[in-house]
Amino acid sequence: MTADQAETNLAVRLGFQPDMVVQEIGYDDDIDQELREAVEAATGTQLVDEEYDDVADAVLLWFREDDGDLTDALVDAIAYMEEGGSILLLTPKEGREGYVEPSEIGEASTTAGLSQTKSVNAGKDWNGARLITPKGAAKKR
């Protein structure tokens, strides 16, 4: 298995499927380019940015400690998403600049009305947390 296949398999394990619209929020120079490419390979579509004006199937949210309030970022991400969609919250690993405490992620997720389904190693510098809206949650726009 090549590194590319491993990355694509990670994207598939995280729930990214062909033809999904994935909105990317928080893009910067420090993101994991291989993971972005893996998500695009798994979906067969290019990521859309914050300017995308329709609903997405999933959100790729890069978040660092100094990016503001995580709860607000998650609530904003939910607003862009199809009902039943998921957010892949990506935060720098411990020891990296911008590291976010797991307790902060848990608290912000709960406050935003999300459930964490899994945590993953999402590259050499990033951890990922897959967050979903609870079943039957009403969409507020």
Task: Walk me through the structure.
- The protein is built from four helices and five strands, in the order αβαβαβαββ.
- It is of the alpha/beta class.
- A five-stranded mixed sheet has the order 1-2-3-5-4, with helices on one face.
Summary?
The protein is an alpha/beta fold. It has helices at residues 3-13, 33-43, 70-79, 102-111, and strands spanning 22-25, 56-62, 81-92, 115-121, 126-132. The protein has four helices and five strands, in the order αβαβαβαββ.
Oligomer: single chain
Largest sheet, in brief, is:
5 strands, mixed
Mean pLDDT, as a whole number? 89
Q: How many beta-strand elements?
A: 5
Structural class: alpha/beta
| Principal-axes shape call | globular
Distance between the termini: 43 Å
Walk across the major sheet and give the strand order: 1-2-3-5-4
Q: In sequence order, what are the helices and strands, one letter per element? A: HEHEHEHEE
* Radius of gyration, CA atoms, in whole angstroms: 14 Å
Ranges where pLDDT stays below 50 over 5 or more residues in a row are 137-141
Treating each run of at least 4 consecutive H or I residues as one helix, how many helices?
4
- The portion of residues forming beta strands comes to 25-35%
Assign a percent range to the helix content: 25-40%
